[in-house]
Amino acid sequence: MGSLLSLTDHPAKSPRETNTLPWNIYYVHMFDLSLQELEYVAALADERNFTRTARRVHMAQPALSQAIKRIERRLGVRLFDRTSRRVIPTVAGEVLAAEAVRIHGSVHQAVRRTRQAAGQPEHMRVHVSEPSLTTPRQILAAIRAHVPRAAVNQTTLPQVVVRDQLLSGGLSFSIAGRIFGPGLEEVHLRDESVGVLVSRQHSLADAEQVTLEDVAPYPLLSVDEAMSGWNRWVGRLFEDHNHQAQWTEESIFGVENAMDILEDDTTVLLTLESVSKEHLDRVAWVPLDPSRTVPWYLTWERNCAGGSESMVAAIQIATRVAEGRGWTRGVADFERRQA
Which domain holds residue 65? Predict the structure, then answer.
């Protein structure tokens, strides 16, 4: 990857002064930082932990540690203070991390505008937290149908990287829970009811509603914690009602992957109401009592949307779908902000 930053404290000499090589050879390339190295700095500043950051950037922890040390040596600046428990960005580290996010965003903007100038369709990359549910599928279907000049690419990323991907322009949108970050904007799409998914032969399958006390004796199907914070939310819900969640040893991600496990007639999966009808031949969804809901948001980075007619159109379409289905009145709020 070519460098984005060339940092040197010494002015380059002219060819006349050197008598041998052109001036640009004297820019010291050891000070260059690549996009990948900037990603390492931004991720470590966010995670403040080498192990989690290494998992996030898909490399071994010792290799990441060495990469950060090399960057610090090149710059002659300490970017992170390490303790036995934490990694804390220095003031310089915070500055470089913020610039790294900005630079990544600028690169994505440049690519998008270049493609637009060449008449190519705009590519919108959309993170969906749970693609098996019909709520995000209905939103994406409407965007694809009504914004035909855009190519919509759906993906599901580990939750820890979604915010940075939005801020850097790597993602156009997220359809998921609430995500906080400087420059991020959102539209509330709906609040969706939580219930239990069980096999048709499960003792809870014929109930009209179930309480957490009803569910507590059964093993809860664990959701991959690298992909989702769902287990933590469910665990807190149980604790708030003086119950302890009993998790299965195996974990899954996505309702589709739960079907075979739920057929043991004992395991329970807490999930949202919009389970696709194609799955309900094999399982039953029963709402919780008292009712609990989880919000869906459409989230994007302000500057990315500001320069994209397709993104603005997609936001309007998504919020109109939500309003038309009686989920929310978020479209009025969005259009009032645009006016």
Answer: 3-98
Residues 285, 195, single domain; the answer is yes
Q: Which of 294, 313, 328 is the last residue of a domain?
A: 294
Same domain, 194 and 290: yes
Q: How far is CA 308 from the centre of its chain?
A: 21
Strand bridging mode 184-199 / 283-287: antiparallel
Neighbours of 52 (CB within 10 A): 17
Q: Quick one: which H or E segment has residue 99?
A: helix 91-117
Model pTM?
0.71
310, two tokens: 């397709």
- How far, in Å, are 209, 217, 241, 279 from residue 283 at the CA level? 15, 19, 26, 7
CATH number at residue 169: 3.40.190.10
288 and 304 inside one domain: no
> How many separate domains does the chain show?
3
What SS3 class is residue 179?
coil
CB-based contact 24:12 (threshold 8 Å):
yes
Residue 290 is assigned to a structural domain of this protein: yes
Residue 287 bridge partners (DSSP): 195
The answer to whether residues 179 and 200 belong to one domain is no
Pairing of strands 173-176, 293-301: antiparallel
Alpha carbon distance 211, 291 (integer Å): 9
Report percent pLDDT > 70 for the chain: 86
> Digits of tens for pLDDT over the chain (339 positions)?
444 444 334 444 444 444 444 444 444 444 578 888 998 998 899 888 898 888 878 889 999 999 999 999 989 999 999 987 789 999 999 999 988 888 877 787 777 777 767 777 788 899 999 988 999 999 999 999 999 888 899 999 988 889 888 887 889 999 999 998 878 999 999 999 999 999 999 999 999 999 999 999 999 999 998 888 999 999 999 999 999 999 999 999 888 888 889 989 999 999 999 987 777 788 999 999 999 999 999 999 887 776 688 899 999 999 999 999 999 754 445 444 444
The CATH number assigned to the domain holding 242 equals: 3.40.190.290
